[in-house]
Design goal:
Blueprint (H helix, E strand, L loop, with lengths): L6 H12 L3 H10 L1 H4 L4 E2 L22 E2 L12 E3 L5 E2 L12 E3 L18 E4 L4 E2 L12 E4 L3 E4 L12 E4 L3 E4 L13 E2 L4
Parallel strand pairs: 1-2, 2-4, 3-5, 6-8, 7-9, 8-10, 9-11, 10-12
């Protein structure tokens, strides 16, 4: 297994020392996909704005740590398995407009603004503590959310401006719902809560 502690910094140094554009970097990494699928940590802004970067759903299955904005603006990402993710920086997948689906589990760590502005359509959340501030905000294609476990909180604006969100199923208890969690969710007519 590959463990690169500050992958983002090393990638940015590589770009600068060789005069590589984000596009060139994405093309190099796409050629070396076998190496990418073994990476366990990716640092801050490693692939930020690599609009040509494509990943297969299974390419991040060993990644347990992703730095802040690691994939921000990567427009060709479509589907990812994030079941190994335990350490998540802020806004990792911000503005990944074609990221339509993610696979999460009970151990997947969510973070501030993690998917803000992404193209998610449906999401199954297994978090047991909280859904962080603005985690899914501005996901304009998001239509359905299933929260499978009880939570301490759904934090401020977690689903704000999700204009297509029409199904919210909370299957466990939630102790606290923050301000403006559903602000601007004009398609949301009801929220399904547990019977108890």
């Amino acid at each position: 297994d590959v463990n690169i502690m500050d992958f983002g910094t090393k990638i940015q140094m590589l770009r600068k020392s060789h005069g590589l554009s984000q596009e060139s970097l994405a093309n190099i990494l796409n050629i070396n996909r076998n190496n990418l699928s073994r990476i366990e940590t990716i640092g801050r802004e490693a692939f930020k704005d690599c609009v040509s970067l494509t990943l297969n759903e299974k390419d991040l299955t060993k990644a347990y740590a992703l730095g802040a904005k690691a994939f921000e603006g990567c427009e060709k990402l479509t589907s990812l398995d994030l079941t190994a993710l335990r350490n998540a920086g802020q806004e990792i997948f911000k503005n990944c407009i074609n990221l339509e689906s993610v696979i999460l589990n009970e151990r997947t760590k969510l973070s501030y603004g993690m998917f803000v502005g992404s193209g998610l359509k449906e999401v199954d959340i297994y978090e047991k503590v909280s859904i962080p501030v603005f985690c899914f905000a501005l996901c304009k294609s998001l239509t359905k959310v299933n929260i499978h476990n009880s939570l301490v909180s759904i934090d401020k604006g977690a689903f704000s401006e999700c204009i297509s969100l029409n199904q919210m199923n909370i299957l466990g208890n939630v102790d606290y719902i923050g301000e403006q969690v559903f602000y601007g969710d004009t398609a949301l007519e009801s929220i399904k809560l547990p019977n108890n």
